[in-house]
Write a structure and sequence with these properties.
This protein is of the alpha+beta class and about 250 residues long. It has a domain of about 110 residues: Aminopeptidase (3-Layer(aba) Sandwich), CATH 3.40.630. About 25% of the residues lie in helices and about 30% in strands. The chain has six helices and 14 strands. The chain has an eight-stranded mixed sheet with strand order 8-9-10-11-12-7-13-14, sandwiched between helices. It has a four-stranded antiparallel sheet with strand order 1-4-6-5. The chain has a two-stranded antiparallel sheet with strand order 2-3.
């Protein structure tokens, strides 16, 4: 068995591995944080799957995970797909979005993508205080198109013919990794974030994929804690991140 903490395979090429200097946490400002990074050119779905199962996240060719000395609040969470049943409020969310169409395709880039991304982030800046800096075409490409290989996809959401949301996902051997989602601020009242996760769960169920990886759940941050509403789910034991068989368990 390949060592999951190293990059293997004929197409993988690790360009560098580093841990950033400790800084103020973006999610919990009273704490300090640091991320460990790996830049991997030509990562395969198998390599990406092994890393995601050990708590890594991917943007472009960059993989990262928390490397904080005094905090383990960023808990990797995955939904157990075949046992998931939507709650009453989640069923209402589905009903509110019956007229929203979804198309699964290779990740793309267009003026429409960039404008929608920037509109979403500007709205979040005003409503939740997120830092705001408009993204340029090249940066969008490097974050969401580059490194996708044959496993990275986007789910484009439409109302009639108007693009209202983009969900980036990695379809991997053992699970689907929900990478990022952004949407038209005018769609906000219909719960698009919840709706996109429900569509990703349905996609995994249709494909016979056992898990949907939602990234980090942080109890003290509303933008990250909502993930715990999708049940049943499992949490990665941070002590087993580098083990050949990482341990995922129901929350205590």
């Amino acid at each position: 068995m390949a060592n999951p903490t190293t990059v293997s395979g004929p197409k993988d090429r690790q360009l560098c591995r580093m841990t950033e200097t400790r800084r103020t946490c973006s999610y919990l400002p009273e704490k300090f944080a640091a991320l460990e990074y790996r830049l991997i050119a030509g990562a395969t779905s198998e390599t990406c799957g092994r890393l995601v199962a050990r708590g890594w996240r991917r943007f472009g060719i960059s993989f990262f995970r928390p490397a904080c000395e005094d905090c383990t609040e960023c808990r990797s969470l995955r939904v157990v797909v075949d046992r998931f049943r939507p709650s009453k409020s989640q069923r209402r969310c589905i009903a509110r979005n019956l007229k929203v169409g979804a198309v699964l395709k290779q990740p793309g880039i267009s003026r429409e993508h960039v404008q929608l991304y920037n509109a979403y982030h500007e709205d979040m800046h005003h409503r939740r205080g997120w830092p705001y800096r408009p993204i340029e075409t090249r940066e969008y490409f490097e974050s969401f198109v580059m490194g996708a290989g044959d496993f990275g996809h986007e789910i484009a959401y439409y109302k009639d013919t108007r693009l209202v949301g983009i969900g980036l996902v990695d379809i991997l051997p053992g699970g689907i990794s929900s990478v990022y989602f952004y949407h038209d601020p005018a769609w906000r009242h219909c719960g698009p974030g919840t709706f996109s996760i429900l569509r990703e769960i349905q996609l995994a169920k249709t494909m016979g994929i056992p898990h949907l990886y939602l990234g980090y759940c942080i109890r003290g941050n509303p933008s990250m804690s909502y993930k715990s509403r999708f049940v049943p789910h499992e949490i990665l034991d941070p002590r087993t991140k580098g083990h050949p068989s990482p341990s995922w368990r129901p929350p205590a």
